[in-house]
Amino acid sequence: MKRLILAAVTALGAILLTGCAATELGDRAIIQAAAVDWDNGEYNVSALLFSSGGSSSEGIDASGENVIKVSGNGKTFAQAVDDISLNDGKEIYMSENKLLIIGGGFAQADLTPVLETLTRDMRCSLNMLVCCTEDPELLTDMHFTEGITSADKPVSMIENAYRAGSSPRAYLIDLLNDAAAGRSTLIPMFQRAWNGYGTTTDEEGETAALSGSRYLYCGRLTQQLDSAETAGAMLLEGLSDRALLTFEHGGREHSCEAYSVRVKHLDTGEISLSAKLRRRNGETLPEELKTAAMGELDRMIRIALEVRQAATADY
Known about the structure:
This protein is of the alpha+beta class. 35% of the residues lie in helices and 31% in strands. The protein has helices at 2-27, 77-88, 112-120, 137-141, 152-163, 172-181, 227-237, 287-311; strands at residues 28-39, 42-51, 67-74, 91-93, 99-102, 129-132, 170-171, 185-193, 207-217, 220-225, 243-249, 252-265, 271-278. Strands 1, 2, 3, 4, 5, 6 and 7 form a seven-stranded mixed beta sheet that branches. Strand 1 (28-39) and strand 2 (42-51) form a beta hairpin. Residues 1-23 and 53-65 have low confidence and may be disordered.
C-alpha cells in the first residue's frame, strides 16, 4: 500500500512540475533591462526582453531574435507593463531584471509608486541596479556589441566606474532605504556620446556614456552633477575614498591623486577633511604642492555640499 501511495505521489509531482515549467517558460517574456519615464500623465515603459519562444538555438544572444525591445504605456506603472504583455503576447517576468533606467520625467512625477510595484508585485531583486538619463530609451535602443545581452554593457560600465571612484552605484534597496529615512540618493547618469566605435553597431560611433550623476529625493530627480561634482559628492556621501585633483601652483597646472580621503561632519555643521596625496604615477607629492592640492579637495567637497543642499531645498 505504501509503495502504491509513494508511486502515485511521485507521478503527480512529476506531472505538476513538468506542466508548470513548460507553461511558465513558454508564456514568459524575461526582462533584462527596463526603462521608465513619465510624460503627459502616463508611464512609458520600454524593455529589453528575452523571450523563450525566440528562434535562437544558442541561448540568449543580443543579436538573435529572442532579445527584442518592447514598449507599453499606462496611467499606472503596472498598466504600462500589462500593455507590454498585450503587445508581446507573453506574461512579463521581471525578477531577472538587471537594470532600471529612470527618465527625466521623474523630475516632475513621484517615482515611489514604481519602486513599490517593482518590489511588491513584480518581485524584482533588491540588488537591481538603478541609473538615470534624460531619455531612458537611449539605453534600450542602443545595440552594444559587448556582453551577452544589451543590458550587460551598461551594468558593467556602472560597476567599473564605481570601483574606479568616478561614478556612484545605486541599487533598488538603496533607493527604498534612503526614501524611508528621508535621505537623498546619488544615481549614476548616462548621456549620449559619439566615441563608441566598435562598442556599438552604430556606424557613426553613437553610444551611451556615464557622465555625472543626479540626486533622487522624495521620489523625484533633482540636481544634476557633472563629473567633477560627482567625484566630490561621492567623497561627501562616503561612496568613495579617492579622487583625482587638478590644481594650479606657481603659475603651473598640476595633478595628483588623493586617497584615504576622510570627510567628517562636525556638530557645528562644518566638515573636517583629511587625505593622503601622491602623484598619478605613484610618486610622493612634494610638500610645496600639498597645501594647494588639499585646497582643491576642500573646494570639491564644499561644492558637493552646496549641490546636495540645493537638491533637497524645495522639498
